[in-house]
């Protein structure tokens, strides 16, 4: 009755269904885990932003890699801006998705160590080889409050660390790289400045990271699982339809079947 399942066409169809089901289930779990990571990240951002600021030296030190648990922690740093070693970070976007640069200014702490401060976004110069117009950093001792971030890497950001760039321009924010240029000990990671506010709103300070939206990962997971459930259901429907069609075809070929009940009509000779 089901010998047709051994045909080449049905063997291929069955193998395809057998591959699709676990693949779709796995894709569903992949989206589900992305949903879980997004939820966990949102909670981490919200908790760290809400936490009271602490001195930056409590969370990082020269050569230190900022752990994910400390991302976006609010920290304070007191020192003097070293504008002579200020650099800009290329190919960064503003809150309105305009392409420009981030202004990275070293802050020399009271003990002589340095922490990098991302003061915000400004438009790039018309000539990509020229240093853009950057509003001056405050003079004298200042206390900066910012969100702590880890050093950027190509693997984490997807940004290539291009070589041969114009003077005082970089692609990634790296405390190790800047320590070599400055000739001082630089604390690992950097600060996204949130206070004091920039004069006249420039540089445009980095917006608080989104920690409300969770994306559509859960919906995608459910879709994949529904697809996985639909494959065997569709396979059964096709098998039953094939069986019915074959039975109907066999019945039409049997002598005395309803299709053969009519009497043959004799030809009437023409006059």
From TrEMBL:
Residues 246-271 are annotated as: Disordered. Keywords: Cell membrane, Membrane, Transmembrane, Transmembrane helix. It is found in: Cell membrane; Membrane. It is a multi-pass membrane protein. InterPro entries: Surf1/Shy1, Surf1/Surf4. Its main location: membrane. Belongs to the SURF1 family. This is SURF1-like protein.
